[in-house]
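Holo prediction — pyridoxal-5'-phosphate.
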Amino acid sequence: MTAQPPALDWGQLGFGYLRTPWRYRSHWREGAWDSGVLTEDNQVHISEASAALHYGQQCFEGLKAYRTADGRVNLFRPDQNALRMQRSCARLLMPPVPTETFVGACKRVVRANLDFVPPYGTGGALYLRPFLIGVGDSIAVTSAPEFLFSVFAVPVGAYFKGGLSPMNFVTSGYDRAAPQGTGAAKVGGNYAASLLPGAEAKGHRFADCIYLDPATHTKIEEVGAANFFAITRDGRFVTPRSPSILPSITKYSLLHLAAERLGLEVEEGDVFIDRLDEYAEAGACGTAAVITPIGGIQHGEHFHVFHSETEVGPVTRRLYEELVGIQYGDRPAPEGWIVNVEGKEV
Ligand SMILES: *Cc1c(COP(=O)(O)O)cnc(C)c1O
């Protein structure tokens, strides 16, 4: 079931949907997940009354498979995505997918679409999109009678074509999540709420908007759909802590590397929007770009520049190189971070 080698221009790939041959599907009915299959059908046929369509009962994940210099293909911390999806499911009253099933499905999809994993050195990767949706015939506002779990794959290109470069952001007056709402769950509803603020920021030529804490609007929470971190002038790695932030796997990986490999003090705490002078560097982090260095932040009338609007700060660059080096297999990984897709299915 290997695909025809695709005629893709790896250097030109962006972040768009491109149909790959195989995807994983599993249904939950009458209290259990079925054994799951790979299918070539990229359309989902579901009831018009599906809870995912009306009440937003759904969640998703995003992770990448990387081609190494010696031709192997690795997933980066897929168990963490499995655990996070289980937490999203708990919040939205959906049946969790066991970690082994989740990781096994990701491996199967990568192996079935192996020719679509971009070559080493192109900066690309095979992006995996697991999702879980409430389906079946029910229009009542209750948990769906049935669920679908699927994983599909899309080859994506390097996020920064000309190398890492800073971007500017603007704070938003809107909230993406409520203080005790669903901000910490990776659910579509948060994204629906972010479309208008994101479009407004982009309309003013910012890369995206920054969300402040929904209770007081004084502290930084998220940068678009990425987490925020900053390096203080005395060299500490600081990232906000809040129940409405989506816990980024990239962020916690950077926090670990900052402490263990760069020897920095690390701290989860408050980042006040009117005290940005304390920080020498700042960045947004997530699977898509790993790190987007933050040049400046517009807040009301004030525009604050961190390290530079055009140059990447030294700590940001070291963190980026360390993490990307681990993902592509060039640098030693902390135990359990790299999962090879070959070998026995789990
Ligand atoms: C997925 C996501 C992130 C980034 O998480 P990673 O695990 O690092 O990819 C950050 N913020 C939001 C709102 C997200 O949905």
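READOUT: The chain has two domains: 10-158, 167-327.
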